[in-house]
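Posting for a labmate who doesn't have an account.
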Amino acid sequence: MTPRLRRAAPALAGALVAASALLAGCSTSGAVEPGPQTPSTTTTPSTPSTPSTPTSPPEPGLVVGLGDSVTAGTACGCTTFVDLYAAGLAKRQHRPVHATNLGQPGLTAVGLDQQLATSAVREQLAHADTVVVTAGANDLVPLVQTWQSRGCPAACAAPQVAAMGQHLEAALAVLRTDLPAGARVLVTNYWNVFQDGDVADQMYGDGFADWSDGVTRAANRVIRTAAGSAGDQCVDIYAPFEGAGDRNPTALLADDGDHPNAAGHRLIAKALLDAS
């Protein structure tokens, strides 16, 4: 296969926040010379003012992050997108929003289903306003060895991709049963389910970029289907990282080429906020 054309990723520009000021007009009239004053013969007792009812502070929100090493922030040493997303919601909603990150490196879609059965996780979900899920890539890791040893066209990868989607759909259905009414579930897809960027090119050589992109697109389709079946919202992070599939995402990845760096986590948080 012809290797996918890679271009240097443009530098990320800092977000510009537009501030607006509300101007209150205040008119003043000219001074008026007072006329003769009539002495007051009666005194009207003042009416006691009614004390104002104190405003209750808004209830804090809770964002729960579930998923694999991407959610956990592996290889980054930075603020994860789960915490960044919660901070963005707090600013938008004018109330405290806490984040609980339950991401586990190596977690598969099957492992997510098992994690959801634990009492500690169920307790967190019972109080969640929003849950963010990123899972499924680790289910497909064995395909890399297959590709290296004998190649793995679309027909080779399809069964494993389909199984991942079924396991994820089952986990998302279970997840819904523990959430309060009105809670939202945002399910992200992937920019790549394997290594990407310059690191992947150096590790695997020609042909890997095209092949891994094809597997990723197939995985993203079943992730979208699984989210829709559960009544959840699928949030795309493929395009922010990859464009139309012709962008080199190295500037958004950690040194291992497999996980987002700080800039990548910020970009995922932005995608989640844009979808919220």
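Reply:
Got it, the structure tokens are right above this. The two ends are 39 Å apart (CA to CA).
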